[in-house]
Amino acid sequence: MQLHVSPSMRSLTISSNNGFIDLMKIKVAARHISYRTLFHTILILAFLLPFVFILTAIVTLEGVNKCSSFDCLGRRLGPRLLGRVDDSGQRLVKDFYKILNQVNAEEIPDGIKLPDSFNQLVSEMKNNQYDAKTFALMLRAMMEKLEREIRESKFSELMNKHFAASSIPKGLYCLSLRLTDEYSSNAHARRQLPSPELLPVLSNNSYHHFILSTDNILAASVVVNSAVQSSLRPEKIVFHIITDKKTYAGMHAWFALNPVSPAIVEVKGVHQFDWLTRENVPVLEAVENHHGIRNYYHGNHLAGANLSNTTPRTFASKLQARSPKYISLLNHLRIYLPELFPNLDKVVFLDDDVVIQRDLSPLWEIDLWGKVNGAVETCKGEDEWVMSKHFRNYFNFSHPLIAKHLDPDECAWAYGMNIFDLRTWRKTNIRETYHYWLKENLKSNLTMWKLGTLPPALIAFKGHIHPIDPSWHMLGLGYQTKTNIEKAKRAAVIHYNGQSKPWLQIGFEHLRPFWTKIHVLLFLQGGSWLILLVFGIRCENT
Fold it and tell me: Where are the beta strands (DSSP E) in 16-140?
């Protein structure tokens, strides 16, 4: 057999030598690669190579650069190219969540010894070879302990602030003592206020009559002087200051020695009003002397309080509601203005924690349209502390009597600066309504409302309120540090309602200058020894 391959490599011949000619010819076809096939191949490679490059770069950033061979790189890239990714990290996270759920469902053992810091926890974990569950349990116990300590600290802070707000600063106490001593020894401090020839002005309705009920001498001075300094017609101003018996001598001495001419000031003690008898104010007598009420306001504020289910803000509101001032007769006197000032037709009542920054004479020109009380409504603002108050913020609507007679969405209003039409007031039963609801709240053991004199006034003046522009009366300077300073500068009256009064150390420093600037003016006007007394002179020998 012979094998013959042609030179062109295109045919193969096989022949036999056995006498017979066996011939087999095999043709091999030529292999051609077309240009179209080559173009498609190059196009596919051009499309795939960028993806391979990007994937290689990602793997390199994740640590492939640590590989020292193509084999290592292949082991990393292979599963990715085939769509299989290592999910060990996801499994670890799932296992971690499972452990956390288990730890959250278990009780923390009693008497467990907890490390004092996270570093100590890590150190103990390394030394004692804690497993993940033990580590999570220890971490949870530490966090819960920290949360308890923070809550206790917050409640302690609120209690201390409550005591600070309810106390009398030493400077004010000394001022009252010194002025009382001055009243007894100095004839000028006892001179009649106002002088006899000005007595008819006290009932002259052509003047602008302000009423202030307070036992804080310095605060009263700020209110009176700020009103006079801001007025365009100070000679038309008459201030009627009502105080208690123990403060009367000091209050009288202050304004006798520091006149605010050309304005007129009258100082009267509650004991000098013939109308304020037990027969006329029986409910207030009960409020001041009721043992349960006095214990509520003066007793242990933590007794019976479940702090574990109480938020700090709720606790702060409850503390504020237990301020002793709310059972003071001075705080309730505003409901008796028509009887205490029978000859006056229209007055502006001011709290002692306000500062007047603008002329208030236009208030007497406001038409109340037959209403009794011109007040700023407190339900149309954005802040949650002061200007977003409705009846539901003051009353317990789970009480059937409250739910029957009141609307929780009704807008509240503010005390602090109010225009009272006393002539219209005398035609109403506001005082009787006020007494009725005070009695009902006493019968219910204070379950209808907790906070002071405003809730019964909200009911008594229901239907008798005329809203005035909020720019007349800006509230909240004793509550919140985020008070808008520019708005405060523009307000006619700024009100430090809340615990952080400007004469207390807990007052907000950036809001205090609105109040203290009046002291500077008093100092420049000649009351230097009194101002120095408040801010520095000691009173051990008084």
Answer: 24-27
